[in-house]
UniProtKB/TrEMBL annotation:
<dbReference type="InterPro" id="IPR048279">
    <property type="entry name" value="MdtK-like"/>
</dbReference>
<feature type="transmembrane region" description="Helical">
    <location>
        <begin position="242"/>
        <end position="268"/>
    </location>
</feature>
<feature type="transmembrane region" description="Helical">
    <location>
        <begin position="197"/>
        <end position="221"/>
    </location>
</feature>
<feature type="transmembrane region" description="Helical">
    <location>
        <begin position="367"/>
        <end position="387"/>
    </location>
</feature>
<feature type="transmembrane region" description="Helical">
    <location>
        <begin position="280"/>
        <end position="301"/>
    </location>
</feature>
<feature type="transmembrane region" description="Helical">
    <location>
        <begin position="399"/>
        <end position="419"/>
    </location>
</feature>
<feature type="transmembrane region" description="Helical">
    <location>
        <begin position="45"/>
        <end position="62"/>
    </location>
</feature>
<protein>
    <recommendedName>
        <fullName>Multidrug export protein MepA</fullName>
    </recommendedName>
</protein>
<dbReference type="Pfam" id="PF01554">
    <property type="entry name" value="MatE"/>
</dbReference>
<feature type="transmembrane region" description="Helical">
    <location>
        <begin position="20"/>
        <end position="38"/>
    </location>
</feature>
<feature type="transmembrane region" description="Helical">
    <location>
        <begin position="141"/>
        <end position="161"/>
    </location>
</feature>
<dbReference type="InterPro" id="IPR002528">
    <property type="entry name" value="MATE_fam"/>
</dbReference>
<keyword id="KW-1133">Transmembrane helix</keyword>
<keyword id="KW-1003">Cell membrane</keyword>
<keyword id="KW-0812">Transmembrane</keyword>
<keyword id="KW-0046">Antibiotic resistance</keyword>
<dbReference type="InterPro" id="IPR051327">
    <property type="entry name" value="MATE_MepA_subfamily"/>
</dbReference>
Length: 475
């Protein structure tokens, strides 16, 4: 059954690129900032309400949290890109099919992945670097998160589709609802009810459930331009394959992040000596800080995604280039701000999470080394997500592998042997600068060859269509 597209969707092909980027990116940035602030404040509650070892235990969960995010974003990112391309082609019936399929896949993934992980949770965390001092905190946190995966997966998957189908403000609102409920309940559960780190996880799931209700109400409403339709397909292998193909890039990016964090945690434990657990906790502080700025850049790329997808589908290549240029400048500005904050005020940032002087000292060293090349990270992230948004997942996968796997893992094996814990921080900075160079070269090559060929093909098709129209008119 076909549905009518909203006027906001049609605007993607004609409205000013700058205004569209503001319209779509600002709500996504606000939602990303809110989510990042929640993560930071939640860590502050845990660090000050439970203790420095709880911060280390939370850092041990990062690889598993990245793995959870990987299976979710495999569906969410792939579905959002495909639905945008279908809308650009004015194929609203297939766009509805995508929404139905994303919902079904989110439920399947969450039940299978969450269930299997719960069964083997303790050995997984020990493999990720948990010790006798930290495994208890990590298990308490992850058990609650995993029980809530069906809620979280559906919320995140459909929220990405909400933005891609022309409702960026509603997508922002759902994220804000999740964060607001989270921040209200976390101090109650941690400090008043004395639930410790488990209370932080319970607050997270409660926030996701509130947003889940909001998002479901949108896609159940016939007032929404694209919504659930009983008559459309709920599990089509054709659509599933396309979702997996495009979603493979963010999936691999998160899987790589999982692998990398394992190497980082183990290197910090091996070379940190008696302060190994605290070194892992310091990485937790650095991770929360860097992710704050990275999530803002992701907000920009989320705003770019429906604009890029629609205009690629409509063969508006000049608009695609303008969106990319503007996105790169904004991304670099955001990570440059992160560089200023982290290099200039490392102790003040660390003191938000803990009062432990040793932990602050280790984190200070990490900030000074890791963030030295941080401004270029924004450019690399925008370029990587650009390829995903225009339906070129293999290019996006390649760039995600360069930053998180191909360069960082070898550096983590070599550098700490010579410089200890500072070598761990230097490994992260070194991989970022090389990945930036590779991203620039890859984009230049693609623009020069592949996109030029797409423009030429579109021109030929346009000329042929014009000739057919003229001949028909003469007849």
């Amino acid at each position: 059954m076909a549905v009518n597209a909203s006027t906001s969707t049609e605007d993607l092909g004609v409205k000013s690129v700058g205004k569209l980027l503001v319209q779509y990116s600002v709500p996504a940035i606000i939602a990303s900032v809110a989510t990042s602030l929640y993560n930071i404040i939640d860590s502050i509650f845990i660090g000050r309400g439970v203790g420095p070892m709880a911060i280390a235990g939370l850092a041990i969960t990062f690889p598993l949290m990245n793995l959870v995010a990987a299976f979710c974003m495999l569906i969410a990112a792939g579905g959002a890109t495909i639905v945008s391309i279908f809308l650009g082609q004015k194929n609203y019936n297939r766009a509805t099919d995508v929404v139905n399929n994303v919902f079904t896949l989110c439920l399947i993934h969450s039940i299978v992945f969450g269930g299997l992980t719960l069964i083997f949770l303790e050995p997984i965390l020990l493999f990720f670097g948990a010790t006798a001092d930290t495994v208890g905190y990590a298990m308490e946190f992850m058990e609650v998160i995993l029980y809530g995966t069906p809620i979280g997966f559906v919320f995140i998957g459909l929220n990405n589709l909400m933005r891609a189908t022309g409702y960026p403000r509603k997508a922002m609102t759902s994220a804000l609802i999740s964060v607001a409920v989270n921040l209200l309940l976390a101090p109650l559960f941690i400090f008043v009810l004395d639930w410790g780190i488990r209370g932080a996880a319970c607050a997270t799931v409660c926030g996701q459930f509130s947003a889940f209700v909001w998002v479901m109400s949108h896609f159940l409403s016939k007032k929404s331009s694209i919504h659930f339709q009983r008559g459309n397909t709920w599990l089509s292998w054709t659509i599933v394959k396309r979702i997996y193909a495009i979603g493979l890039s963010p999936f691999l990016m998160n899987v790589c992040a999982c692998v990398v964090v394992i190497f980082i945690n183990r290197a910090l434990l091996d070379y940190g000596g008696a302060d190994g657990n605290l070194a892992v906790g310091a990485y937790g502080i650095l991770n929360r800080t860097t992710m704050f700025f990275v999530m803002i850049v992701f907000g920009v790329t989320q705003g770019m995604q429906p604009i890029l997808g629609y205009n690629i589908g409509a063969n508006h290549f000049d608009r695609v280039k303008r969106v990319l240029r503007l996105g790169i400048w904004i991304g670099v500005a955001i990570t440059s701000l992160g560089w200023i904050v982290s290099e200039g005020f490392p102790d003040k940032v660390s003191a938000l999470f803990t009062t432990d002087e040793t932990l602050i000292r280790i984190a200070r060293e990490g900030f000074r080394i890791y963030f030295v090349v941080y401004p270029v990270v924004g450019c690399q992230i925008v370029i990587q997500n650009f390829f995903q948004s225009v339906g070129k997942p293999h290019m996006s996968i390649f760039l995600s592998l360069t930053r998180q796997l191909l360069f960082l893992i070898p550096f983590l094996i070599i550098f700490p042997r010579f410089w200890g814990v500072p070598g761990v921080w230097a490994s992260m900075a070194g991989s970022d600068i090389i990945a930036f160079v590779v991203a620039i070269v890859t984009l230049w090559w693609w623009m020069r060859h592949t996109m030029r060929r797409m423009e030429e093909n579109a021109g030929v098709l346009g000329a042929s269509a014009g000739a057919v129209t003229e001949q028909t008119g003469n007849k």
